[in-house]
What we know:
It is built from eleven helices and ten strands. It is of the alpha/beta class. It has two domains: about 1-170, Rossmann fold; about 175-264. A hairpin with a 4-residue loop joins strand 7 (about 125) and strand 8 (about 130-135). The structure holds adenosine-5'-triphosphate and magnesium ion.
Amino acid sequence: MNMHISSTLPFYEPAGRECELFEMAFENGLPLLLKGPTGCGKTRFVEHMAAKLGKQLYTVACHDDLSAADLIGRYLLKGGETEWVDGPLTRAVREGAICYLDEVVEARKDVTVVLHPLTDDRRTLMIDRTGEELQAPPGFMLVASYNPGYQNVLKRLKPSTRQRFLSMTFGFPEAEAEIAVVARESGLEKGRVAPLVRLAGHIRALSGMDLEEGVSTRLLVYTAKLMARGMNVDQAIQVAIIEPLTDEPDVKQSLRDLISTIYG
Ligand SMILES: Nc1ncnc2c1ncn2[C@@H]1O[C@H](COP(=O)(O)OP(=O)(O)OP(=O)(O)O)[C@@H](O)[C@H]1O
Ligand SMILES: [Mg+2]
């Protein structure tokens, strides 16, 4: 778990009206689900909005072993005594903070039982172990994210869970916006970022065929950071785009072919 309140506003370049939608969800006490591929700005968006609203943010990276107790809390032994320790979700509810469940589909099924009363009009967190029933204050907000690309039949949100959230799909930014994001994040001049973004457009067109997922904005930022610090473009693309995307020699070769059409 990662707890965080930011004094400076993390940079976020909006793609549309997502900031207004987030504020409206917050003001109305409605949970929000963000869908989108890896590295497209979901986490950055939540960090930005939490800071903008002056809210504490509790981020939980969900994994297949994450249980309800990990979110809610548990009794721990301290010097021979058992003591109740709140989990991140309980803390967020008590404090009226924002709780962000990253890759929520990964979590164990018992998590759903906890989320349902919290994400409908009851807005309550049931703590079975202590018998407590917490009413979420107006400042509490639950945000969740998942990547539909990795979805398999076993790991899907049930309709009864999905239909408790407002939802938004995130994609990679438009070319102009992505150039601005990558230049700002890396310090590389826009003129040198533009061909990377063009390359990303071509690679994303391949995804689904040879690649599980297109190149992320995150990887473009990595590439540009290496270039800004003096690495030559071929090497930067090799370690920050080609190798992270694939293990297949023939796919690597087709990526190199694409690159040579852009860099000549
Ligand atoms: N719209 C944006 N504004 C500012 N930075 C962005 C934006 N989109 C992407 N980025 C950059 O891309 C990086 C990756 O974004 P982020 O970590 O938010 O992705 P994510 O969607 O949460 O991915 P994952 O699903 O893998 O967690 C950020 O650290 C930031 O540098
Ligand atoms: Mg993320």
